[in-house]
Amino acid sequence: xxxxxEASARSRIRKLLDPNTFHEFxxxxxxxxxxHLGQLDAPVxxxxxxxxxxxLLQGRKVFAAAQEGEFMGGxxxxxxxxxxxxxxxxxxxxKVGAVILLxxxxxxxxxxxNAGLIAVSEVMRAVLETRAAxxxxxxxxxxxxxxxxxxxxxxxxxxxxxxSEEGRLAMSGPEVIETAAGVEExxxxxxxxxxxTTGGKHRYLxxxxxxxxxxxxxxxxxxxFDAMQxxxxxxxxxxxxxxxxxxxxxxxxxxxxxxxxxxxEIWSDLGIPAAPTLPMLDADAFRAVADSHRIGK
Amino acid sequence: MNWRELSSQLFPEGxxxxxxxxxxxGTARAAGAEVTVIGTxxxxxxxxxxxxxxxxxxxxxxxxxxxxPIVILVDTQGQRLRHRxxxxxxxxxxxxxxxxxxxxxxxGHKVIGLVYDQALSGGFITSxxxxxxxxxxxxxxxxxxxxxxxxxxxKVPEERxxxxxxxxxVFAPGAHNYFMMGGIxxxxxxxxxxxxxxxxxxxTSEDRRSSLGEExxxxxxxxxxxxxxxxxxxxxxx
Lengths: 297, 238
Fold this sequence. Notes:
The complex is a heterodimer. Chain A is of the alpha/beta class. Chain A has a domain at about 10-170 and about 210-235: Alpha-Beta Complex (2-enoyl-CoA Hydratase, Chain A, domain 1), CATH 3.90.226.10. Chain A contains 11 helices and 7 strands. Chain A has helices spanning about 10-15, 80-95, 115-130, 150-155, 175-180, 190-200, 200-205, 215-235, 240-255, 265-270, 285-290; strands at about 25, 50-55, 60-65, 100, 135-140, 160-165, 210-215. Chain A has a 7-stranded mixed beta sheet with strand order 1-2-3-4-5-6-7, sandwiched between helices. In chain A, strand 5, helix 4 and strand 6 form a beta-alpha-beta unit. The longest helix of chain A is centred in the middle third of the chain and has 20 residues, at about 115-130. In chain A, about 60% of the residues are buried. By secondary structure, chain B is α/β, with parallel strands linked by helices. Chain B has a domain at about 5-135 and about 190-205: 2-enoyl-CoA Hydratase, Chain A, domain 1 (Alpha-Beta Complex), CATH 3.90.226.10. Chain B is built from 11 helices and 10 strands. Chain B has helices at about 5-10, 50-65, 85, 90-105, 120-125, 145-155, 160-165, 175-180, 190-200, 210-215, 220-235; strands spanning about 15-20, 25-30, 35-40, 45, 70-75, 75-80, 110-115, 120, 135, 140-145. In chain B, a hairpin with a 2-residue loop joins strand 1 (about 15-20) and strand 2. Mean pLDDT of chain B is about 95; it is low at about 235-238. At the A-B interface, helix 2, helix 3, helix 4, helix 5 and helix 7 of A face helix 2, helix 3, helix 4, helix 5 and helix 6 of B.
């Protein structure tokens, strides 16, 4: 069992897809690098921190993109974002079976602030356009840097979000909130609080992620394939009914949990026995408790 | 400019917009037709409530007024920075708003964004930046962060960033820089009503921002990289 958390982006993507089927677009040998980082004397990467390409998933042709957390936390710069947008455009042209997004990112790359912000909005539109073309988009989150900022929004534009317990999904990072609003608002060094608030288990219980898996590339691989099959049957595109249902779900969440201050209170509200012990459970034990109580099952 | 003054210039044929908890919603007449207006004011922090309220207003327009254009008035300091918003999954609320706007556009609603005061990161990404086209007033502040904060994070001296920003719009805030990069379609210097009428007439749902950024010289790599990824596909298909 290979850890997803510890693997590099390129290794994740190779092991996620069928053996020896991954073909990379704009690989590092083409040296498509950021035009801005050099001006700031910041290091560049020959793939700008993202690996994109095609391959087979259980025999079906898919495209995949993996963000490399080791390079600037997977943050989205001009080239990084453009590679993603290009991949989605090409996915529509080639009518592939799905696009799998192995997201690991702090969001907009602050070194390329303005270009990164526009790029993330272009990615959002490209994701939704791809779905409108009937192609499932599946987001996988299990990297050490989590999935934050604009990429936290992009992930929730996908059809299905798959997370490991170790994965984190949110908007502003705890450090950002602590800096802006004080340590009493969000203590970024309280690891348990950070995981309770942003981690895979809480997201699964709230319905922000649809599948939770152990930290293994194989588990992500199987979940990605199942998700692709599921979306194929259900339809990839946004529908008015679907948006109304999501609107109602988010409104209920606000009404039911809007006055809570800690995720444990929400878990108790959901009827989970011994809610404070939830963070200790492994993935299987957690699901045994969580599945009958989670929202959006 | 406050939203009332803005609205009287933008909608001289009349408007009926209410402000509630920094959230703006209502209707107006533009170019002889009804439009839905949503937006925020006083540099609103976008928390889960405002994101959901905007989404509802968009869905309601799709439900009850098929095809009616939507105008988004942007003035935000960005997403609300609170533990509670993160606990409740603010990214899901933002994404929901983005999906509703995108869906409206797919259903044939023209969607125009206008940054009339301030636009920052998370608050902007799922509003103005998802419109068919986003415009700005000349004095609008648009940014991810200011140069002092950027200097801290990148460890590049602020004076150097100021110098670099003269030639590279990626680094510095401002409507003009976003115009150069293609993120802002045009800056409206005067006659807002006529500009809005033209925007509604010319709106297309195709995302042209990367090619605009290339044409205008403010974002030279994005379009080329997208094309390089896609072109390979065409070569293979041929």
